[in-house]
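Q: Convert this sequence to structure tokens.
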Amino acid sequence: MTTDRAPAAPEAAPVQAAETPGTSGLMEQHTIGPIPEAERTGTARGVFGIWLGVNMLPLTVITGALATTAFALPFGWALLAVVIGNLVGGVFMALHASQGPQLGVPQMIQARGQFGTKGAALVVLVAMVMFMGFYISNLVVGAQSLHGVYSAVDPTAAIVGAAVVSMAITVIGLRLIKVIITVSAVVVGLLVLASLVWILVSGVPDGALTAGTFSGTGFVSMIAVGAVWQIAYAPYVSDYSRYMPSGSGARAAFWATYGGTLISSVLVMTLGCLVGSAAKGDDVVGGLASLTGGLSTTVLLAFAGASALGNAGNVYCATLNTLTLAETFKPGWLPGLKARLVTSGVLHVVGVVVALAATGGFLTSFTNFITVLLYVLVPWSAINLVDYFVIRDGHYNVPAFFAPGGGPYGSWNVPALVVYLVGLAVQIPFVVLPMYVGPVAAEIGGIDLAWLVGLAVSGCLYWLVARRSQQPRPDVSVAATR
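A:
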């Protein structure tokens, strides 16, 4: 199924390390290489904690508020759309998480099994841009939260300060990121619950819960937003689960990831739906402050802190993707601690520069951003899941991901790349964007079905192509590659 193929072999040549990873010291030594089984100390509890905390952010509040602001839905319908979207999207995302324990490598390294070592670079680049987009978004919203508490705080200083905190955590690595985000999840989660109780006890503004009008367009569009919120995580869920043991980690990784992300996203988006009903214009953060009264200072400070702390995860994954891109053009090079630190530092600086230039009209820009992400990520997700669970049944030659020429996977898997492009193209008639509405979407009242079409067409077409031309799965077992 691949082109530019190197001769297949039972095992690929071992990866040559420019900087030899190790296990000693406070800082994480591993980057994009396979995690040895002896170092698989990750647990389902740790994975649950990190996904419970990843969504405890003001950005999630703003996303939930889209239902009652941008889509003008009544609160009840808004909440239902949020639940459905996250339930559906979370399944796809958590299925990707189960790949981490089995293969022990970052998610985008595993994409080489579908697209080839060089062919995967396109998807890796898209994922890197996405991670940086969330990093920048969190910088902006975190600064807004802090400014909402202390108006004298300079937003520029807040953004720079948040980046410094994020960099300090990223330097240590995944272990500290997990601890920090888990603790943040507990603190912010309790405050979100307290905020909901406060609003109910203090009295919801008259007409807030019934404001807006139900529309099929708005309802389905908000389901799509909830789904893409989850699917957007798919390119890096294995980055967090790859330290779990291969023997028992796959099923546990799925449920820990699904449970954590579903609970936190629905909880925080519920607050967003309620705040959006009472917010004036796009000032969701201001609406949260006015609704929570005396609790607002604590809530906004906690959200600002969570944005700075949790943002380390976004840059961590962006760093892995940047190193993956670099290794693509230097096959066999295994980056270590020094490469991770330098790359992370550069990405932090780039993010700060963009955040300082992109604070105006943020809500509109963010809506457009996540919508485009949906269309770009859906075909990759469908291809990856069909290949992993249906075509190869989880069996990959992991060392071949790093071999010059890609071993049995080749440098360029042209059929898979064509399927990916087809998956993008078939969505165009169904897309709903401020700058363009597809003809089919316009005909059905502006309802966004592009993501469903993209999933179905990409998955089915890849299955048809792969089952005809797929090479036999590698003789070497996954466990034997580590």
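Residues 296-328 form the longest helix (33 residues).
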